[in-house]
Amino acid sequence: MKRLACIFLAGLIVCMSFSIQAHAAVKSGATCPKLGATSTAAGYKYTCIKSGKKLIWGKGVKVAVAKPKPTPTPTSSATTPTAVGDPVGAIGGTPTPTASSTLPSAADKAAAEKLAADEAAAAKSATEKAAAHRSTLTPCPASGKCAVGNIGPAGGIVFYVASTPQPWGQYLEVAPASWAGSYVDPYTQWCALGDSLLVSIISDPGAKNRNSEKIGSGKTNTEFMLSTCINGIANSVHNYRGGGKSDWYLPSTDELREMLKATGSIADFAVSSYWSSSLAPVYGAWDQVIFGGTNYTSDETNAGSVRPIRAFG
């Protein structure tokens, strides 16, 4: 019996050790145990994704936590019970707490005002920077022979020129930073849980075969995305009408790499990863690309920056 007790205790210690290690390791980029597994740590939800041959925790998505309403503290110290039928507080009863107990404190208001002021200052700085840079650019010449850094026909900035005309066109232009209404690119999920139709669409071999990382494939990829998510980023890009054009789309992985390589000519990118329209090797995930051309897979519920492009020529 003593030997069995020892064995049980040793097993319990090992399990507790594994549990502690697993919990400590839950952070973006750390190794995870099973593809598709999820874990919540420090207020963020992480999803296990595949990057190359490794399983790692993807970028965390902040989990909204409902704040409990404070319980009002009675202000009266009287102990005399309230008589039956007597108005509350008329004979020493507890007064009804006022609504002021739930109002934000002065410190909360000051913090909110500072945050708003900081955001406004950042937006103003980004606006001025983008305007100053754009004033140095010139439109594509009348001959139609555009160069990287020219302002394209839809008001974007040309970032890629094919050596010869292709079936998709010859030039790619990226929308200006103000495309979404401010000078900061949206940083959001590819698709929220509950809005995705990926489970039913992904089983279509034809759709998967049409999806590609190559230059010139972003438009077809985006059409596939539109059929997989009811309210995703493809919808925002598809609804953009910059320059009066309705053919904007989310870039493929290779198009996105070319876009980020031209940062010197565009100069208004967010310092973060950007979503592509290319399916990743992992079920339910898409490629993201960061500066330097490195791409990694990300679950559709994780966040990334978004910028539309279009082809012409």
Describe this protein's structure.
The protein has 313 residues and is an alpha+beta fold. Among the domains are: 28-63, no CATH class; 145-312, no CATH class. It is 29% helix and 19% strand. The protein is built from eight helices and twelve strands. It has helices spanning 2-24, 106-134, 198-201, 205-210, 218-226, 233-238, 253-261, 263-266; strands at residues 38-41, 44-51, 54-57, 61-62, 157-166, 169-174, 187-189, 274-279, 285-289, 295-299, 303-305, 309-312. Strands 1, 2, 3 and 4 form a four-stranded antiparallel sheet that branches. A three-stranded antiparallel sheet has the order 5-6-12, with helices on one face. Strands 8-9-10 form a three-stranded antiparallel sheet. A hairpin with a 2-residue loop joins β5 and β6. The termini are far apart.
Layout of secondary structure:
Layout: H1 2-24, E1 38-41, E2 44-51, E3 54-57, E4 61-62, H2 106-134, E5 157-166, E6 169-174, E7 187-189, H3 198-201, H4 205-210, H5 218-226, H6 233-238, H7 253-261, H8 263-266, E8 274-279, E9 285-289, E10 295-299, E11 303-305, E12 309-312
Antiparallel strand pairs: 1-2, 2-3, 2-4, 5-6, 6-12, 7-11, 8-9, 9-10
| Shape verdict | globular
Question: Rg to the nearest angstrom?
Answer: 27 Å
How much of the sequence lies in strands comes to: 15-25%
Largest sheet composition: 4 strands, antiparallel
- Strand pairing plus helix content: what structural class? alpha+beta
Determine the number of helices (DSSP H or I, runs of at least 4 residues): 8
Sequence of secondary-structure elements = HEEEEHEEEHHHHHHEEEEE
End-to-end separation: 83 Å
Low-confidence stretches: 4-24, 74-94
Give the averaged pLDDT, no decimals.
76
Q: Kindly state the number of beta strands.
A: 12
Helix content: 25-40%
